[in-house]
Design goal:
single chain; 2 domains; Tumour Suppressor Smad4; five-stranded mixed sheet; seven-stranded mixed sheet; 199 residues; 3 helices
Length: 199
């Protein structure tokens, strides 16, 4: 079959530059592979993504290797296509155009979602900071300070006042409660007999 492929490139000013390419082939293989008649260089396109064939004057498209494809906004594995039907293969838009200059099928291809845009969108969605949880950095720092103060200083003192420690006098075999003072929480106890020689 005789195929006219029109590659459209959108410029920064909004104009579209079109490059025409003629092919003679039995079917149109669309993919990233160098063996594809329509080579779409984008990692979101499979090596062999879709195939277009013309049978009895009618065009059919089928997705290959589990590739995703939509025809006029509807996901499809195989579909019969006609003039002005719109296919989406990865980030590319493929339009079946009216035949020109004795072609069996004419398709126009345009990249509508560049990889850079996808990457920027992903980066913007992936940004997570402290303020996204609902509190400012200052409030988070005060919460952290209060947590440390409570667990390291206040909590041991409260526990020591609720559960008083007992001191065991080994020499006299007596047990008595330690006096409750704020420093008792951190005091390791009296000096044993051996170090007392040096003091």
């Amino acid at each position: 079959m005789k195929v006219l492929i029109r590659y459209g490139t959108r410029k920064s000013r909004g104009d579209v530059a079109v490059r025409d390419e003629w092919l003679e082939c039995d079917s149109l293989l669309i993919g990233r592979s160098t063996a594809s008649e329509i080579q779409l260089m984008d990692p979101r396109v499979l090596l062999e993504h879709a195939r277009v064939t013309v049978r009895s004057g009618e065009a059919y498209v089928e997705a290959l290797n589990g590739g995703s494809m939509s025809v006029n906004g509807n996901l499809a594995d195989t579909a019969k296509v006609s003039e002005l039907d719109v296919l989406h293969i990865g980030p590319f838009q493929v339009i079946i155009e009216p035949n020109k200059d004795d072609s069996d099928i004419t398709v126009s291809i345009e990249l509508i979602s560049p990889l850079g845009d996808e990457l920027e969108n992903l980066k913007n969605r992936a940004k997570i900071n402290v303020t996204s949880v609902g509190l400012s950095k200052r409030k988070w720092s005060w919460i952290a300070f209060a947590t440390v103060l409570t667990t390291v200083l206040i909590w041991p003192m409260v526990v020591s006042w609720i559960i008083p420690d007992s001191i065991v006098d080994v020499q006299n075999a007596e047990t008595f409660e330690a006096p409750m003072t704020p420093t008792a929480v951190w005091t390791s106890g009296g000096i044993s007999a051996a170090p007392q020689v040096f003091w």
